[in-house]
Amino acid sequence: MKVAKLCLGLITFVLWFIVSFYSCAQMMSDMGNGVTESTGAVGILSSIFVLIAGIVAIAARSSRGGAIATTILYAIVVLIEVTSNSDMLGVFAFIFGCFGLVFFISIFTQKYKKPTLSQ
User: Fold this and answer.
1) CB burial class (10 A; 0-12, 13-18, 19+) of residue 26?
2) Nearest-5° angle of CA 104, CA 92, CA 22?
3) CA–CA separation, 81 vs 88, rounded Å?
4) Cα distances (angstroms) measured from residue 70 to each of 43, 65, 97, 102, 108
5) Average pLDDT, stretch 37-56?
């Protein structure tokens, strides 16, 4: 499960780049067309949470607390992206929802080491 969590963390970085690029392009398009509702700003906000989730997924892949934090971050991303009006962000919401589900399942199935006190 640790390897799967590492791979999902790395895939999250690639998707972070795509979401950021798409959101910046959408924001520029909205500014050029005079649209007041900006799905680009929502995408930028969700890309920040995606970046944090990817970092936590890689750094804390061996801890239960890291899995819980990553699950919460992916849930926040899904909520942000589902409430936006963009179809493309809905696709990313589904992908990140699946990632969050994997981390949620790992909370209960992965064997974690008990912390020990060293002297």
Assistant:
1) buried
2) 140
3) 9
4) 19, 9, 11, 10, 14
5) 88
Identify the pLDDT of residue 51: 94
**N residues, the chain:** 119
Residue spans of alpha helices (H) in 60-86: 64-82
Task: Compute the 3-state secondary structure of the chain and give helix, strand, coil in percent, each to the nearest 5.
Answer: 80, 0, 20
Alpha-carbon span 64 to 107, nearest angstrom: 6
Mean pLDDT of 5-11: 92
Question: Mean pLDDT over residues 33-59, rounded?
Answer: 87
Quote the distance between the C-alpha of residue 101 and its chain's center.
Answer: 11
